[in-house]
Amino acid sequence: MKVLITGAKGQLGGALQRTAPDGASITAIDLAECDLTDSKALRGLIFAEQPDVLINAAAYTAVDKAETDAALAKAINTDAVGVMAAALTETGGKLVHVSTDFVFDGASASAYQPEDARTPLSVYGLTKAEGEDHLRDDDLLVRTAWVYEAGGANFVRTMIRLMNERDELGIVADQIGSPTLARGLAQTIWALARCGATGIYHHSDAGVASWYDFAVAIAEEAHNLGLIGKLPDIKPIATADYPTPARRPAFSLLDCRKTRALLGDAHVHWRTNLRAMLKEEKALG
């Protein structure tokens, strides 16, 4: 299986490379190899590589900046996906596209099903939803949320830095979802691709958390491993107390039962994966 991966230097792109199955011939690209806003270059790359599978792990993810940088967000999150799908229609390859919980508005009373209506609240969410619309019937869409990985730029590593600098932190407690370890997401993407899955699937770690819950767990686990010197005072705050340019869904838990049923594997709890990530983080020094 010849595989082209975009977003090679991102958290998921790196995890996909580290967890690639035997027999997969991987070409991983990032901005230096191909600017996704350059449609001609992107199309040329796909024709040159002729991948059996293109895993699009690249995205414009600066959620707040996207509110004033909508053109670039659209070029990467929407238009580039259309170029990929059109090129693969000619070369015969399959597109595996990664999207986000931000395509939902957070008004649901239960975890979002793959086929639920999308009503994004932000430019980022809108461009990701529009990118999804370019997928063909035989392509694969995997939505995820709150992704983090050892060594990456993410909430966990930011919290560790702040916990070592401050005695007190205020963390939003009224946004609910589930953290997702990039390695587990990558393994699910590979498994879905290998079994020929098409359509929409969700993957996040098991369990439910607010950002406040996540921060408290990070403090406890990081302190146990010696990554922070003392436990800070973490106070729950409301979204209204921490205004941001982009609106976030208050509830964006993803229902992953379809994915787990197809793959027949365990749904690992987010705290278990957090503990594993922090051990890797400690090993990285």
Structure description:
The structure is a single chain. The two termini are 36 Å apart. With 285 residues, the chain is an alpha/beta fold. The longest helix has 22 residues, at 70-91. α2 (39-49) runs parallel beside α3 (70-91), α3 runs parallel beside α4 and α7 packs across α9 (270-284). It has a six-stranded parallel sheet with strand order 2-1-3-4-5-10, with helices on both faces. β1, α1 (11-18) and β2 (25-28) form a beta-alpha-beta unit. It has helices spanning 11-18, 39-49, 70-91, 123-132, 155-165, 182-194, 211-224, 257-263, 270-284, and strands at residues 2-6, 25-28, 53-56, 94-100, 140-144, 147-148, 168-172, 176-177, 180-181, 199-202, 209-210, 233-237. It has a domain at 2-154 and 178-206 and 253-268: Rossmann fold, CATH 3.40.50.720.
